[in-house]
Amino acid sequence: DIQMTQSPSSLSASVGDRVTITCRASQSITSYLNWYQQKPGKAPNLLIYAASSLQSGVPSRFSGSGSGPDFTLTISSLQPEDFATYYCQQSYSTPWTFGQGTKVEIK
Amino acid sequence: QVQLVQSGAEVKKPGASVKVSCTASGYTFTTYGISWVRQAPGQGLEWMGWISPYNGNKNYAQKLQGRVTMTTDTSTSTAYMELRSLRSDDTAVYYCATLHTSGPFEYFQNWGQGTLVTVSS
Q1: CA A64 to chain centre
Q2: CB < 8 Å to B108, chain A
Q3: CA-based end-to-end distance of chain A
């Protein structure tokens, strides 16, 4: 199985900050990487697919980059509604696997 | 708009089975696969498998093989996930999600609201 490792596990940031979350796969997954946002008590919400494609309706402050084993999710200017947990997920091979999550908290 | 509505919370005893439903609306049911993902309390997301409502093709996570069965009923646009021989570590919120593709890339685009399954004696 492909292991996905996110860092950091949690971070504290202020509104307006630029936030970067990294995700590393245990092997190359080319661009088969998706990002999801999850708020407490809610289902995950797709942000980015294919490493860098912004899902329709997702604000442009979210962006994804990377390929191979290393990927980044960037929030260019953190907004109050962005405080949540973020997960990466590989779709290169089954079993599809998720990172352990990065919780973004208010500083 | 695409909507997935799941069945209500369940409480089961160890060794029992549970069957969760996921009813789709707002699109042609056979267009997208349905994946199931679960989340234990306070934990991360775990993919369980997927099924194609179009042709019935399935792919289950190896760790659940033999205990999980995914089915669909195209007449009611409903997907089902049955998990047998329940254990306490099966306690989780279970989500269904539509599986979309863009070229070779696959992702979970629309999600149900989740169904809490509690396994307790």
Answers
A1: 8
A2: 34, 36, 44, 46, 89
A3: 36
CB distance A91–B102 less than 8 Å? no
Residue B120, classified by CB atoms within 10 Å of its CB into exposed (0-12), middle (13-18) or buried (19+), is: exposed
Do residues A35 and A84 lie in contact, with contact meaning Cβ atoms separated by under 8 Å?
Answer: no
Closest CA to B107 of A53, A6, A22: A53
- Residue-wise pLDDT for B16-37, tens only, equals 999 999 999 999 999 999 999 9
The whole-angstrom separation of Cα A75 and Cα A53 is: 14
Q: What is the pLDDT of residues A55-83, one digit of tens each?
A: 999 999 999 999 999 999 999 999 999 99
- Provide the 10 A C-beta neighbour count for residue B56: 11
Instruction: Give tens-digit pLDDT for A2-50.
Output: 999 999 999 999 999 999 999 999 999 999 999 999 999 999 999 999 9
d(CA B75, CA A54): 34
Token pair for A51: 């490493």
